[in-house]
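Quick question about two entries, pasted in order.
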Amino acid sequence: MKLFYIVSLIFVLFFGCSAKKPPLRDISNAKMALVKADNDKVKKYEAMKLINLQKKFSALKELMNQKRYEEAKFLSQEIQADARVLEKKVALKEANEAIKSKNGEINLINKNFTQIKEGE
């Protein structure tokens, strides 16, 4: 019976430890997402959110140094999601600016057209 417990304990320890591998793929994806988000457009519209994202990545590195792999995996996935949201927000702000610009052009054309029509 003791042998069964010893074998079971070894089995749990062996497979338990192997489940706590560093989430290297997630971390790599988080780094790529951060690099992709770190551009002039994001810096123009959402500089503080980019800085917060960089701080999260620093925290991720610290979790890895402490071998807190489960937390690191979660944080790396959060960084990826935040980076995607950040890029979408910036794209939306750019689109809104383009719409405002085109509306201004349309208003100018309408004004000019009205002046021409009144001049006839």
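Here is the second entry:
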Amino acid sequence: MKLTNKQIRQIIKEELKKVLNENISEEEMLKIANLLLSGDQGFRQAVLIGQDLGAVTNYKIIDKSVSDDFGAREKFEHNFNPSPELMKAIASVLGEEIRGFKVLPTGEEVLDGYDYSDPERGSDHHRFQHEVNEGGTNCRYFFAIYPNTKPNAPFKSAKMHVYMYSEKLTN
């Protein structure tokens, strides 16, 4: 089987991301989480760093800015999938306990697959949120973890999402 240069570069890039992600300390991941939660500019910087480290994947930004008789509003929707390590760091910084998360005697991190019901919204995932105002820009963050429903499913197999909505009124 013959590989193209593009395929070889992609393989090397993926392997480098794995190595970099394995070598990032918990303290460094907490710094990235703090930066991410600091507001619009910090969020954007943390996403760039996270993408380089493989801790942020599938990043999308949608411009929802509008202008009307009352002025202009810069509105952006950001979303991405965090690595399990980044999601744990975010939860730690916010003082959130990830329900059902535990470490087995083998050292494997798992979710028990139960106790995720959200009576307010009738969903089966764990979510938490954060809000910060940064110099006229309001940033609302939403975090969601969708566990694999079987007991003791690997934590890394849960689907994790981060959403951040920023809004700034301009004249």
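Reply: The helical segments are 5-23, 26-36, 40-53, 84-94. Residues 5-23 form the longest helix (19 residues). Hope that helps.
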